[in-house]
Amino acid sequence: MAFPFSTVLVANRGEIAVRIMRTLRGLGLRSVAVYSDADARARHVAEADEALRIGPGPALSSYLDAAALIAAAERSGAEAVHPGYGFLSEDAAFARACVGAGLVFIGPPPGAVELMGDKIRAKQAVAAAGVPVVPGRAEPGMTDGELAEAAHEVGFPVLVKPSAGGGGKGMHLVRDGAGLADAIATARREATSAFGNGDLLVERWIERPRHVEIQVFADAHGAVVHLGERECSLQRRHQKIVEEAPSPLLDPATRAVMGRHAVEVARRCGYVGAGTVEFVVPGDSPADHYFLEMNTRLQVEHPVTELVTGMDLVELQLRVAAGEHLPLRQEDVVLDGHAIEARVYAEDPDRGFLPTGGPVLVAVEPALPHVRVDSGLRAGSVVSTLYDPLLAKVVAWGPDRGTALRRLRRALGGTTVLGFATNTAFLADLLAHPDVVAGRLDTGLVDRLAEEARPTATPPPAHVAVAAALSLAAWRAPALRPADRWRVDDGWRPGGRAWIEDRFAVAGGDVSVRRRAATGAWDVEVELGGDGVTTFAGVVAEAAGPELTLTLGDRTLAYHRAVDGTTVWIGWQGGAWAFRREEPAGPGRGPEAAAAGEAVRSPMPGTVVAVHVAAGDRVGAGQALVVVEAMKMEHTLVAPHDGVVGRVPAEVGRQVALDELLVSVDAGAQP
Predict the structure, then answer these.
(1) Digit-coded pLDDT (tens) for 358-415
(2) DSSP string computed for 127-171
(3) Cα angle at 295 between 291 and 300, to 5 degrees?
(4) How confident is the model over 529-557, as a mean pLDDT?
(5) Does domain 135-204 have CATH number 3.30.1490.20?
(6) What pLDDT score does 593 carry?
(7) What is the Cα–Cα distance from 190 to 604, expressed in whole angstroms?
């Protein structure tokens, strides 16, 4: 059957836009990208057949402007719109507007989007169909007081969550009444900001729960099938970071029951297209699964289902949207092997997983058998804190779970992003943990392990510091050689080679690297945080662009590198370290350092959304000072000690950089 459209506008950005375009190219269909000013150099813009700017205005709102998106489709000659996930993908009004403009909306009918997009109505409809739901209270328009009353009725601990949206945003676990009011206020504010709807509901929190979801597909002719399950229990702060198919928890009988429940949910709401029915499952009793929500769109984790079923879910979406019958029956669905996906995020594990961002200096993806990478990254683009922190997904397939895990760990070791911190190394460590290897999963496991495994930043290996120092020397050399011979950075002196010292600040401690040129090589001494000196004799360095190879005795190691001002970035086996070169102490530096000790600085790039103090206010240790928002999540910064507020550079609405001064608190001042 020929498609009734030849050009598809992808109303999204990042890795999902790139992934959709891949299928469009394979089917001979033309793709149109849209972009905000912040995304002018993004990968999805470069890979589309045509790209249209949908600014001006704030970058985030550009992708939420339905009128601008439809106008872009009309300008480009697109006959269809694929919304991806996030943004307007579950906005019934946008779906209706597309259809009203004569465009094919590659998604479910607006009525199904409305029903299942409202978690309160969805729970009511599903319960009426006989599908078990999580105990709680879900009523439209509940006030703060009614939510508090419901929490006490359900019994702590409870989960306060938005009725609209998903992705863990605005979701808060409350273990007792003391933190309930603040959790409700914060959840409502975050839900309104992220989804334009502040309605909340309360559910009983199930201890050590597992998150299992069923992929469903339906056509416009009444056929509905499920494509098996995905386990998404490895989450951090309710945000999925690792998903796999099939679940190591379910047996065939439980899988069949959950599949039937998911198909029934899809039938009840008149569903068409790709959707996911999510369940929370007690780890010690998988038969007692409860409906959580239905996502009326393609899921971030859809690649694991594609790898175990051999199906292209985006192609199925396109064919169903074109009016075709589903090309399979339930008995045709066979799961082959095991697939696991890890999400690479712009976040810093050494800073409590706070959001990061900035220019992409180097981006390297693994090219390995049975490994797939869905990525929105390319060198030269900029990662903004205005958007979700997801950068890429690394996915591995194996004939069994153990093989898939090993392949994924190897693939993460070959993934490098330089320019800001990511969670890549943390993911590799997580996948090697005995509980993960054994399949003993629950939605709180990652948060517990993060607290246990990385209480402080881990110093880099000494050889990585060698790579940083020699990279800096190589970068400086071309600029210095034409100048005075005495200024060349190789330690040359009339009486012999001298030692050259570089001092760096790096996560995990300060580093001193002393190097001296030898014949065609370097002798190097490294001191990491006062832990003694490691000596490397006759180090040979070979550099080509962002690649660096060091031969240290009988050991040869390969790195990726980038220099950004006085910061040297080194990537090795999935880890990335920023070595910030420290200038020698000079006049005026002492008072500045002292003042910094009393400063409250932004722990990530973001936007100031609230300022609670003014100059001259007396504050107590732990008192809220400023709220910074990044990646649609709020972070409250508190007073480090009792004192009086001095400077307050923070202003509501202001964009701030990592480590930028927000408030100073003087412990000795008098009001």
Answers:
(1) 999 999 999 999 999 999 999 999 998 888 899 999 999 999 999 999 999 999 999 9
(2) HHTT--B-SEE--TT--HHHHHHHHHHH-SSEEEEESS--TTTT-
(3) 120
(4) 92
(5) yes
(6) 38
(7) 18
Tokens for 660, please give them: 């930028």
With beta carbons less than 8 A apart as the criterion, state whether 378 and 332 touch: no
Of 572, 462, 574, the residue nearest 513 (C-alpha): 462
DSSP letter for each residue of 573-608: TTEEEEEEEPPPP-TTHHHHHHHHTTEEE-SSSEEE
Cα 324 to chain center, whole Å? Answer: 35
Residue found by looking up tokens 């990061």 in the block: 356
- The CATH superfamily assigned to 213-228+251-453 is ATP-grasp fold, B domain (3.30.470.20)
Interacting residues of 185 by C-beta distance below 8 A, sequence separation 6+:
144
Q: Where in the chain is the domain with CATH 3.30.700?
A: 462-581
- pLDDT (tens digit per residue) in 129-160: 889 998 888 888 999 999 999 999 999 999 99
Alpha-carbon distance values, 526 to 44, 341, 531 (Å): 42, 37, 10
- SS3 of 621, please? coil
pLDDT digits (tens, 9 = 90+) for 406-456: 999 999 999 999 999 999 999 999 999 999 999 999 999 998 888 776 546
Q: Which residues pair with 572 in a beta bridge?
A: 575
User: Within 13 Å and on the Cβ side, how many CA atoms surround 313?
Assistant: 28
DSSP one-letter code for 459: P
Angle of helix 302-309 relative to helix 313-321, nearest 10 degrees? 100
What pLDDT digit, counting tens, does each position of 467-521 carry? 999 998 877 654 444 444 444 455 555 555 688 999 999 988 889 999 998 888 9
Annotation: CATH topology of 462-581: Glycoprotein, Type 4 Pilin (3.30.700)
Fold of the domain spanning 596-666: OB fold (Dihydrolipoamide Acetyltransferase, E2P) (2.40.50)
Q: Concatenated DSSP letters for 36-84?
A: -GGGTT-HHHHHSSEEEE--SS-HHHHTT-HHHHHHHHHHHT--EEE--
Pairwise CA distance, residues 226 & 275, whole Å = 9
DSSP code, position 508: T
Domain 7-106 fold is: Rossmann fold (3.40.50)
Q: Read off the amino acid at residue 569.
A: W
CB-based burial label for 428 (10 Å; 0-12, 13-18, 19+): buried
Size (the chain), residues: 671
